[in-house]
Design a protein that fits this description.
Blueprint: E1 3-8, H1 14-27, E2 32-36, H2 41-47, H3 53-59, E3 64-67, H4 81-89, E4 93-99, E5 117-123, E6 133-136, E7 147-150, H5 156-172, E8 177-182, H6 190-202, E9 209-214, H7 215-224, E10 231-234, H8 236-250, E11 259-261, E12 266-269, H9 287-299, H10 303-319, H11 325-331, H12 338-352
Parallel strand pairs: 1-2, 1-3, 3-12, 5-10, 8-9, 8-10
Antiparallel strand pairs: 4-5, 4-11, 6-7, 11-12
Length: 353
């Protein structure tokens, strides 16, 4: 019997790449009954608001959600729907693997990135993304303000559970080390509390190596010697920045999957944004959302289907004949549309079924 999964297509290039990912999953016969709910710009056009209350109620009826990218207005407009969903579903751990793809030509120019295998775990419900901010003096418009303030809210409860999640993840998947990243040397209260809690939690996991890094040093270390890092746990904004950096080590945002895990819900989305300037051009690489979907399948216990899809993707990339523009320029060949790229994946998928 098919399992229900909520699909949020997103906006910008979201509906394109999620649609292509769905074609691949359906071709693999993964046994999913899709419930499609539109949020973001399509919802504003239809319902006058980006996240209607009834839509959130519907999303909460399924424990698993696959989501395309949603546009966050810059400097105004509505609050990030990505953050809103994570808080509403209490998916407090953003888990972003950055693993070098088994593609022979991809790392020829930067061989130091061939063996990267990092899992970034980031707290997702508070920190500088908690939404507690205001202009000074209070004003409806930023033009009238003399300053602006954002509160960096760090709580013991949320820090403790995300650090525990990182250690449990390491233990479950045979990882050897957890690195806690903070800025406790400057932000002595918020960074200091996160550091203290990480140290306390680490004492309960003597089988896992533990270390700390200050965030700016961590950024340098990831570029110079990423192979020395395994599981990294940090706060919201720092994790957001470092996970994009880590994505660059493995080929870019077009191949970077992500998941948001809580005790009751799991929300899966690619790392990249909605890229509205590419909307309708059918050029953006859908690999990230496809690999994200394989994370979702594994979460649902459909590991065999996940491996079939992964192998079809990796074969397509290794063949190197039909690639989207971001990969084609590395390979130095003419790009194809993401539709053609997807059809090549489906062809390889069917040959292996």
């Amino acid at each position: 019997m098919a399992e229900k999964v909520t699909l949020i297509p997103g906006d910008g290039i979201g509906p394109e790449v999620t649609g292509l990912a769905r074609e691949v999953l359906d071709a693999a016969d993964v046994g999913i009954d899709w419930k499609v709910i539109e949020l973001g710009e399509p919802a504003v056009e239809k319902y006058g608001e980006p996240l209607p209350g009834w839509a959130l109620d519907e999303i909460k009826k399924t424990p698993v959600v696959l989501k395309g990218p949603l546009t966050t207005p810059i400097g105004g407009g509505y609050r990030s729907l990505n953050v809103t969903l994570r808080i509403a579903l209490d998916t407090y751990a953003v888990v972003r693997p950055a693993k070098a793809l088994p593609v022979s030509w991809l790392y020829q120019d930067v061989p130091r990135y061939q063996n990267v295998d990092i899992v970034m775990v980031r707290e997702a419900t508070e920190g500088l993304y908690s939404g507690v901010e205001h202009f000074i003096p209070q004003s409806a418009t930023k033009e009238a303000a003399i300053a602006a303030e954002t509160i960096n809210l760090i709580t013991r409860r949320n820090s403790e559970r995300v650090v525990k999640f990182a250690f449990e993840y390491a233990r479950k998947f045979g990882r050897k080390k957890v690195t806690a990243v903070h800025k406790a040397n400057i932000m002595k209260t918020t960074g200091g509390l996160f550091q203290q809690i990480a140290q306390e939690v680490a004492k309960g996991y003597q089988d896992i190596q533990f270390e700390e890094r200050i965030v700016d040093n961590m950024a340098m270390q990831l570029v110079l010697k990423p192979q020395e890092y395994d599981v990294i746990v940090t706060t919201n904004l720092m994790g957001d920045i470092l996970s994009d950096l880590a994505s660059g080590l493995i080929g870019g945002l077009g191949v970077a999957p992500s998941s948001n895990i809580g005790d009751r819900y799991a929300l899966f989305e690619a790392v990249h944004g909605s890229a509205p300037k590419y909307k309708g051009q059918w050029k953006v690489n859908p690999t990230a959302i496809m690999l994200t979907a394989t994370l979702m399948l594994r979460y649902m216990g459909k590991t065999d289907k996940a491996e079939l899809i992964e192998q079809a993707i990796f074969k397509t990339l290794n063949d190197g004949k039909k690639l989207t523009y971001d990969m084609a320029r590395i390979r130095r060949i003419e790009p194809v549309t993401n539709k053609e790229y997807t059809q090549e994946i489906i062809k390889n998928l069917r040959q292996s079924m």
